[in-house]
Design goal:
five-stranded mixed sheet, 11 helices
């Protein structure tokens, strides 16, 4: 009930009554000039009251989210109409969970001042694991004795996707190809058979890594476009763990770190798409290796309970809380501009296509464990 106090972990949870919202909506219904000006804006735009509730939306916004008319939006908050996964995790709704503290949209609303607009970037993952990147701008204005916020939303998902592709193909892939080229140029000068064999093995590993990077991007792009085909077959969990341990133990990022299969692991027959499953667990392993200190051990395992197979990847490093809150958002990264698809792709492939559950647990005492349950 509205009279009850609703707890919040970030922004105010309280909402205006239906009557107040209706009065605020009427400002735009009764003055067609206001509505005409806002509808002329080519970007998506909504007007919010001081409780962050929508009291008007322009035609561009209404069309973009598939609502037959904007009346259905009134009284709701942005995250709720965009189906943000965090907007439904608490009774207070959009803006009231701990995850909302890192949301650019909510922070823009809270930080805007009468004399100064607030502009930020915002990442949203929906309940269907769709992902969007927005640039948002909040501006206060007074109208009919009401202080309202004009909130403009610009979709920059394509821009972020291009940054990611540029990073992968013009940095990671180019580096791998450069390594192969450099090693190959040494071959004609080597006379020692053992040394030549060693260089050949290094070229082979670098080639495998290059192919893996390209295949990974292909799967990610197909998955986002809805074109990925799942081909389920039976496979032993031990085989998956052994294949991945062998592959990543020879990967260039391992250096002086180690990958170990837990002695507690169970060997279970799993019916799933082994290529996609390897891709998901492989991303978990790469993240764990990159986050680990020298001489650290990354432990992988499989277990079975109540018809569910759980694969885990553990390392001893703790993930800071502000990073934890954003981990599965597309484009979020701690590795520099244009990275940030690893954890998002785990969710996308693992939940949308393998119909499993992907998550993580991280504490200072126990380190970090990523998992997928099928």
């Amino acid at each position: 009930m509205r009279n009850n106090v609703i707890t919040t972990e970030f922004a105010m949870a309280e909402r205006e009554s239906v009557k107040i919202v209706e009065q605020q909506c009427n400002i735009f219904r009764q003055n067609k000039l206001y509505a005409k000006i806002l509808d002329s804006v080519s970007d998506k735009l909504v007007v919010l009251n001081d409780k962050r509730q929508i009291v008007y939306s322009n035609e561009e916004f209404t069309k973009s989210i598939g609502f037959p008319n904007n009346k259905l939006l009134f009284g709701h908050r942005i995250g709720e109409v965009l189906n943000c996964t965090n907007a439904f995790k608490s009774e207070g709704g959009c803006g009231t969970t701990k995850f909302c503290s890192t949301c650019g949209a909510v922070n823009a609303m809270l930080e805007v001042k009468p004399e100064q607009s607030s502009e930020k970037e915002c990442r949203i993952r929906t309940n269907r694991n769709d992902a969007f990147d927005f640039r948002v701008k909040a501006t206060l204005f007074n109208i009919d004795n009401e202080t309202l916020t004009i909130f403009i939303i610009k979709d920059i998902s394509d821009e972020k996707r291009k940054q990611t592709l540029d990073r992968i193909f013009f940095h990671d892939v180019l580096n791998s190809a450069g390594g192969i080229s450099g090693l190959s140029s040494l071959m004609p000068e080597i006379k020692d058979t053992a040394e030549m064999k060693e260089i050949a093995e290094m070229i082979s590993r670098a080639s495998e890594n290059l192919i893996s990077e390209i295949q990974g991007q292909r799967y990610y792009t197909a998955a986002e476009n809805g074109d990925l085909t799942v081909e389920a077959t039976e496979i032993e969990s031990f085989k998956i763990l052994k294949d991945l341990a062998d592959l990543y133990s020879r990967h260039e990022i391992v250096a002086d770190k180690f990958i170990s299969i837990s002695s507690d692991s169970e060997n279970i027959i799993v019916e799933t798409d082994p290529i996609l499953l390897r891709r998901i667990i492989g991303n978990m392993i790469k993240n764990a290796i990159e986050a680990s200190m020298p001489a650290s051990v990354v432990t992988i395992s499989s277990a079975h309970k109540n018809g569910i197979v759980r694969f885990t990847v553990h390392n001893t490093t703790y993930i800071p809380n502000d990073v934890q809150l954003q981990l599965f958002q597309r484009s979020f990264t701690t590795k520099g501009i244009g990275r940030g698809i690893g954890t998002y792709s785990m969710k996308l492939l693992g939940e949308n296509y393998l119909k499993g559950k992907v998550g993580f647990e991280s504490t200072k005492q126990n380190g970090t464990t990523f998992y997928i349950e099928i």
